Amino acid sequence: MKRPLAIACLLLAACSKSSPPAPAAADDAAVRTTPSTSASTNADAGATAAAAPAGKASSFAGKYTVTAGTMYVPEHKDWSSVKFKNDDSKMLGDGEISIAIDPSGRVSGGTEAGPLGASLIDGTSDGTTLTGTIRRKDPTDDGLTGTLVAKIAGDAIDGTMNLAESNAAVVRVAKLVAKKK
């Protein structure tokens, strides 16, 4: 096992010593001027970032309502063996949710009860839009997971969560409304 590795190392060393430096091409002039252009662009971006007000931490508390979702299975013959039966009796109803947004736009939060049970929210916000994922506090509990997309307007968040059970036997949609604490 050591011999092939030693040979590979020797070949690599020989190749790196015998390879002459690449000659400068006409395109290198364009490449050499790019850093000054990039530097001015970066300086402009820094000035814009400095002029923009820093974000403020915000906390929201609200409610969500989970309803049955739908899934489309094509009727084409290649899909004929695929069956989907959405159990319309479980993981439905209302619950409470908490969401926190730090000054950098990082979103965190979660739920403790209701159809979502104990879940965590991780995401980002640009101040007007919030996106995130919903995952389980206990990954083995087979609860709902999914995505969150919401709008932030003033002191309120209004959005939708698209959710599914771990085995995708249950597909759900949830409406979310939260107010600043």
Provide structural commentary.
The chain has 181 residues and is α+β, with helices and mostly antiparallel strands. It contains 2 helices and 8 strands; from the N terminus they run ααββββββββ. The protein folds into 2 domains: 21-52; 58-180, Porin (Beta Barrel).
The secondary-structure class comes to alpha+beta
Number of domains: 2
Q: Strand-residue fraction?
A: 35-45%
The profile of the biggest β sheet is: 8 strands, antiparallel, barrel
- State the helical fraction: 10-25%
Name the CATH class of the largest domain: Mainly Beta
Please write the string of helix (H) and strand (E) elements: HHEEEEEEEE
Question: What's the total count of β strands?
Answer: 8
CATH architecture of the largest domain: Beta Barrel
Uncertain stretches of 5 or more adjacent residues: 1-54
**Net shape:** elongated
The largest beta-sheet arranges its strands as: 1-2-3-4-5-6-7-8
Q: According to CATH, what is the topology of the largest domain?
A: Porin
Radius of gyration, in Å, reads 26 Å
CA-to-CA gap between the ends? 64 Å
Count of helical regions? 2
Keywords:
Porin, elongated, 8-stranded antiparallel barrel, alpha+beta, 181 residues, 2 domains, disordered N terminus
Question: Short summary of the structure?
Answer:
Helices cover 23% and strands 38% of the residues. The chain is α+β, with helices and mostly antiparallel strands.
